[in-house]
Amino acid sequence: MRIVLGVAGGIAAYKAAHVLRLLSEAGHDVRVVPTRAALEFVGRATWEALSGHPVTPEVFEDVPEVAHVRLGREADLVVVAPATADLLARAASGRADDLLAATLLTATCPVLMAPAMHTEMWQHPATRANVATLRERGVHVLDPDSGRLTGADSGPGRLPEPDAVAAAALALVDAEGKPRTRDLVGRRVVVSAGGTREPLDPVRFLGNRSSGRQGVALARTALARGADVTLVAANLTVRPPAGVRVVPVETTAELADAVRAAAADADVVVMAAAVADFRPAADAAHKIKKQADGSAPPLALVQNPDVLAGLVAEPARTDGGRQVVVGFAAETGDADGDVLHHGRAKARRKGADLLAVNAVGGGQGFGTEGNAVTVLDAAGEVVASVEGSKDAVADGLWDAVVSRLHR
Question: Domains along the chain?
């Protein structure tokens, strides 16, 4: 895939070198187009050595190739990191006063911009208006992270980490490099991810093996398909995707409250988190000590509320509008039936619009790069079967969700 990496003149330009490396190592042909100011932070030699291509900010170099038109026209993806307040303003107003601005004007492929600037610049009405204009035109503009900025300043305006920028950019295209469909534009989506933890004492907890990878993939691909995404994140072991609203939680009770609050105006709720079925009857105020006689202290458990069944029985959407509710069922076969048998029973019992059933254990499911799910409707009938990377599985599930939204 041919990618143009635009780099604007901010201190975060050094992070773009890592973005370049990640995209190149993923097998893509990356052409770097810096602004003149960007070369004050990271020199031309660095970009040329890492990309293997000549680098210039000028439209009057390599004139016979008509680079100011060709680069944008031939690109499969354009990524700008960092995108400064100045570049956002020039892009929003349609300026073409350097090679990067001209490339943005001629690009017909997906474009992702990752802003980075001081908090006051990001929050200024002019910048907010420029971002809104670009988003209305179909440009994917990430929200910056909050954190340490230049000097002692801290606040929103920090460039997301390079791996998050690269992942968000690559999510805009499918496995063949084609632009991902934008069929979730205008939709509000809530995704839960990770695994809940129920405290035993101040040190220990009951938990599960979920990393949150599948839920994060669902959030990332929903964002790429145009949705406004809230991710309710329970103890993730992977980084949340850049550009989504993250609500961190720990326990099942916290997750249930966060999901219901976020789902009040949501079109879709996807419960991908591995939610604990049980919690300790009592949370010890002090660390539980070993017994002198070598015996183990008794552990009494109580059942947690069923968050998914609760959403189905009492929809969280406050305006009474239609809400598609999707559940996940991590199953293992046993003497009573195989994974699909248990999944069908759960689909009929839960009543969710869709239930994604996947086998876990033995190297499947939790913590792996790939996944395989069978999607069932509320009657337990198979709607779809998807296998592959977790992003591919996420896309397959969103296809099934979109068909429900159109009904």
Answer: 2-170 (3.40.50.1950), 188-405 (3.40.50.10300)
